[in-house]
Structure formats: C-alpha cells, structure tokens
Write a structure and sequence with these properties.
By secondary structure, the chain is of the alpha+beta class. It has one domain: Cysteine proteinases (Cathepsin B, Chain A), CATH 3.90.70.10. 25% of the residues lie in helices and 17% in strands. Strands 1, 2, 3, 4, 5, 6, 7, 8, 9, 10 and 11 form an eleven-stranded mixed β-sheet that branches. Keywords: Aminopeptidase, Hydrolase, Protease. GO terms for molecular function: cysteine-type aminopeptidase activity; initiator methionyl aminopeptidase activity. This is Actin maturation protease. One of its GO terms (biological process) is protein processing.
Length: 337
C-alpha cells in the first residue's frame, strides 16, 4: 500500500527564552504542502490525586535501578563523535570499505529509564536539543503525561500523544510521520537529522537494544539526533577528515556545507542512524533499513505485559494504531528547516 502523507508541523507554545538559531542545513528545506495536522488531543482527565497519595507502581523499577547503579560506576558518558569512532573500530566489517563516511551528530545526554519509561526518557533526551542546555525535568514530562491520560506508569503507546506532550511541555514543533520511514518519508527524515534536530522512533528492541521484529511484543523507543552517510565522493567544501580514522568526515562548524546527494534508497549499508535509548549510556549505529523494518511491524501488544497484572494506556486500535509505521520529528518552535 502507498505510504500515508506526513502531517505538518504543529507549533506548540513559545518557550520563555528565545531559542538559539538553527544549525546550517546541507539540504534545502523540505516541502510541507502535502501535510495534514495532528488530530486534536483527547479530553483532559480529572486532576491527579492530592499530594500525599501513593504514587503509581512502576513495574520494573527495582531492576532498572540496579542497572542504573551499575552503569553509573562505569565512567563518564562518551560524546557522540568518540562513541561513533569506537563503534567503527570495533565493527569494521559492518561498514562498507568502498565508501567514505560523513557523520552528522548532535550530542545527547544519557538517561537510564526507570520501569517502562523508554518513550519519556527518549523525549527528555530530545528536549535538551530543543531547550538547551538541560531541557525539561523528566518528572515534569511524567506528570503531564499522567494528567493527560497518555500513560499509567510511564509507558507511551501512541506517537500522536507523544507529539501532543512535546508541544505542551517543550513548546516545540512536531511532525507526525505515518506510513513508515521509507519513501516518501526517508529524505525528510535524513534532511531533519542533518540539521541536528531529533527524531523519536518506536521499534522492537532486541537483547542488544538493536531493532528486531517481534510484532510489537518488545516495543521500545529511541531518539536519533545524527546520521552516518556512506558516499562515493566527499564534497570539496565544508567537510574535514578525522585525523585517526581515514575515510570518516565531519561537517566543519560554522562553514556552509556543499549540498550532498543522499544515498539511494535501494543501496544497502549506506545510511546508519545514530541513536540512544533508555537502557544504555552509549550511542548505537543502526542500519536505516533495519530500523524502518522494525518500525513497520509494530502490530500487537506483548502477551507478557497483558498478563503481568499492570495497567497500561493503549490507544483505540491498539499498538498497530498507536505505533506502527509512525515516528515523530521535533524541532524548535521558530525553526524553518
């Protein structure tokens, strides 16, 4: 079936301080003429219980706290560029040697989730780019999501609700993509990442946190704020080569970049998303097609979640209606590209 058109950015309320100007784009701004708006938000639920009432039980909290403590002892969080170089050195066989690579990377902080808060943690990470330097406290995101009825204990099974939450709390623009990460959305996503803006992606999480295909049973959220592109030739202006890794290039800050030709959709192993999620300190490089395929098969609610005695907020139409083939582009409220 043909991919559904992506709706237009919906501006949220302006933040109290003017955001910094957007980074230079290597591509012209994408067309938005075919977009339609995000549906209106659901009615606001009654206010939460008065202070002093017991907070909702967060399933998996004890396990996540042990993970958090272990990771905190492991040392400082690496910056994006250093983490990518580590990945390229460790997994040379995964990256085509016949190509040269250009890394576009906006640095994200890391945050380990507590219980099923992967979506809200991913939104918090994205918020540090939308309202630098620190974004909005995670507790505020959780509070508003609870008040609006988007979640029961931190889970987020609706990309549309994630967009509404981002608009309200971060005061940013959102674009809800439908129809998957392939054409016609692929170039839009890559243009967005090259400019340094974040992308929120639901996918099925494998044991090593990479995308897999479990029909939505392992539904998880990641944030991407960078992309590694494999190209035949590096443009002559605006890029510099890494002194330690020949063949790896970066855009020069503050220098206009010569426009790139995006790798064709059918060319394998040429586009990797630089992503983070709430169970690791480290960045991960995921083949774009692997993420696309995982995102497109989110159809069913996990049987183990359905029988664990916990309450989850799932939209009408289930996981298929809330997550399948959808993603969320975020950018500062006055950004034009």
């Amino acid at each position: 079936p043909a991919a559904a058109p992506a709706p237009s950015y919906s501006p949220g309320p302006a933040p109290p301080l003017p955001p910094s100007p957007p980074p230079h784009s290597a591509f012209p701004p994408p067309p938005y003429s075919l977009q339609s708006p995000i549906p209106p938000p659901p009615p606001i639920l009654p206010p939460p219980p008065a202070k002093g009432a017991a907070p909702p039980h967060v399933f998996g909290l004890e396990k996540s706290q042990l993970l958090k403590e272990a990771l905190e002892k492991a040392g400082p969080v690496p910056r994006g560029r250093e983490d990518v170089k580590r990945l390229l050195k460790l997994h040379k066989d995964r990256f085509r040697s016949d190509l040269q690579w250009i890394l576009f990377c906006a640095d994200l902080p890391s945050l380990i989730q507590e219980g099923p808060q992967c979506g809200l943690v991913a939104l918090w990470m994205a918020g540090t780019l939308l309202l630098p330097p620190n974004g909005i406290p995670l507790e505020r995101l959780v509070q508003v999501a609870l008040e609006r009825g988007y979640t029961a204990q931190g889970e987020m099974f609706s990309v549309a609700n994630m967009g509404r939450l981002a608009q309200e709390v971060l005061g940013c623009q959102t674009k809800l993509l439908c129809g998957g990460l392939g054409s016609p959305n692929r170039d839009l996503v890559l243009q967005h990442l090259v400019t340094g803006h974040p992308l929120l992606i639901p996918y099925d999480e494998d044991f090593n946190h990479e995308p897999c295909q479990k029909q939505g049973h392992k539904a998880h959220w990641a944030v991407s704020a960078g992309v590694l592109l494999g190209v035949q030739h590096i443009p002559s202006h605006g890029y510099t080569e890494d002194p330690e890794l020949p063949g790896l290039f970066y855009p020069v800050p503050g220098t206009p970049c010569q426009p790139l030709s995006l790798p064709e959709e059918g060319s394998e192993g040429t586009v990797y998303l630089l992503s983070k999620q709430g169970k690791s300190w480290h960045y991960q490089l995921w083949d774009y097609n692997q993420v696309r395929d995982s995102n497109l098969q989110l159809t069913d609610f996990s049987p183990s979640r359905a029988t664990n005695g916990q309450t989850y907020v799932v939209p009408a139409g289930g996981v298929r209606a809330g997550l399948c083939g959808q993603a969320l582009l975020l950018r500062p409220w006055d950004s034009n590209h």
